[in-house]
Design goal:
The protein contains seven helices and five strands. It is an alpha+beta fold. The longest helix is centred in the first third of the chain and has 21 residues, at about 25-45. The radius of gyration is 16 Å and the shape is globular.
């Protein structure tokens, strides 16, 4: 299924940068499932309501495949640094997948970088009055590297859950938050607006 322009855009509506992942289709798709599972599992672990998490694959031209993903959640009364950590978790989970499966190379790891996730965290924390630096530690704030460290620690404790969600998502394309909760034993907090 070809994604909509919104699914291929960042939080500002700008098209996300397309990156060539030097892997075959199956490995690239599973890597994207790990990316989205990282977001979904850390979101839920940090008390956010996960609506859905999915991997999307399509053929932009005959014989050529592309993959992306999307995780939708509701963050209500979420610690800003935990929100930023779940933003970082996607790339970290995807790189960990490469390492665990013997697929890691510098080029593949670089292709996992999701600048749109970092920029979402920077922009939303800035709006909330927090200082998140891309490369440096701003006074009274944290750097993206520090946030990635937070995410890595949490992800290490939740790797079994991330792995379970990634494999299920790879098989089914899309999981609801309640399906993720059932797979992992985590609690999917109620949707603040009522039924999800």
């Amino acid at each position: 299924m070809t994604p909509t322009p919104e699914q291929l855009s960042d939080h500002k509506g700008t098209p996300r940068r397309a990156v060539d992942m030097p892997l075959n289709y199956e490995a690239a798709r599973l890597g994207m499932a790990f990316h989205e599972a990282g977001h979904a599992v850390l979101s839920m672990a940090y008390g956010m309501h996960v609506v859905t998490s999915e991997v999307i694959a399509w053929q932009p031209t005959p014989g050529k495949w592309a993959v992306t993903g999307n995780t939708t959640f509701q963050a209500q009364n979420t610690d800003p640094w935990q929100f930023a950590a779940q933003c970082a978790a996607g790339t970290l989970a995807q790189v960990q997948y490469l390492m665990v499966h013997g697929l890691w190379t510098p080029e593949r790891a670089a292709a996992c970088e999701a600048e749109h996730d970092r920029e979402l965290a920077v922009d939303l924390l800035t709006q909330a009055g927090y200082r998140l630096g891309r490369c440096t530690v701003p006074e009274g704030g944290k750097s993206w590297g520090m946030v990635r460290g937070m995410a890595r620690r949490k992800m290490t404790h939740l790797w079994r859950e991330i792995r379970s969600v990634a494999y299920a998502m790879n098989e089914r394309d899309r999981l609801t938050g309640d399906e993720i909760a059932a797979l992992t034993g985590l609690v999917n907090p109620p949707f603040a607006g009522g039924a999800a």
